[in-house]
Amino acid sequence: MELGQCEHLLLQRENGFLSIYFDRPHVRNAMNLEMVRELSRVLMAVSESDEIRAVILRGSGGHFCAGGDIKDMAAAADRSRHAEMGADEDPFFELNRAFGDLLCLTDRLPQVVIAVLEGNVLGGGFGLACVSDVALCHVEARFGLPETGLGIPPAQIAPFVVRRIGLTQARYLALTGLRFRGREALRLGLVHRVASDEAGLKAELEAVCEGIRHCGPQANSVTKRLMLQVGQVPLETLLDDAARAFSSCIRGEEGQEGTRAFSQKRKPIWAEPPPSS
């Protein structure tokens, strides 16, 4: 799988896991439009690959992501002042909607998405945490939706926050700009595990990755797709789709290997440790 060169991301592949580090530490990994486009391009390539089983999102320099780059927004404002534009040429719309597309792409990625949250997890970083399948955080990670304090709404983020933690809590956080740390994120259901130090966070990540290795990649992909349809399609339609998916999987190569391995009391081939080089 060819991922190409990135200016704002660091990519590391190991045994079917792709770690993507946001790499703008001088602005605490705040996202500009170029970074959003790079991440979208990488995730699109991943979505079409059978080589990657999980994506790990994290930040370099001790921070996950401080949200949108305010300087990038200011540059968009400058462009709007110096040009007469139609609705489809609005740089604010382009910047904001591109991030919404990224959230949708991340949310629907066939692979498991793990977010490792440290330092600032604000605005757009908060949104990315909300579309992860598994979220792990350092106890001192700092969460918040600061947009309304800047006089703007968390426009693309809000629907995913509501879905993650519920409307009541989402309103409270967005309309007050409250900042909080890891244990409160766990209580809200934003994250799944909290670690007190770097070693603990590494151990939590290793445990999650080990669990994923024991799950059939195709089964995980199908399961994720079915779960995302809950509330989006009628229940009877969803159950029909689920039954067809079950039949297809159990007849397929992965399902046959999994059931055969269970009968033979051994690990399926996807759970075997990779050969040492």
UniProtKB/TrEMBL annotation:
InterPro entries: ClpP/crotonase-like_dom_sf (IPR029045), Enoyl-CoA_hydra/iso (IPR001753), Enoyl-CoA_hydra_C (IPR014748), Enoyl-CoA_Hydratase/Isomerase (IPR051683). It comes from Sulfidibacter corallicola. Residues 256-277 are annotated as: Disordered. This is Enoyl-CoA hydratase/isomerase family protein. GO terms for molecular function: catalytic activity. SUPFAM superfamilies: ClpP/crotonase. Pfam families: ECH_1 (PF00378). The lineage of its organism: Bacteria, Pseudomonadati, Acidobacteriota, Holophagae, Acanthopleuribacterales. Belongs to the enoyl-CoA hydratase/isomerase family.
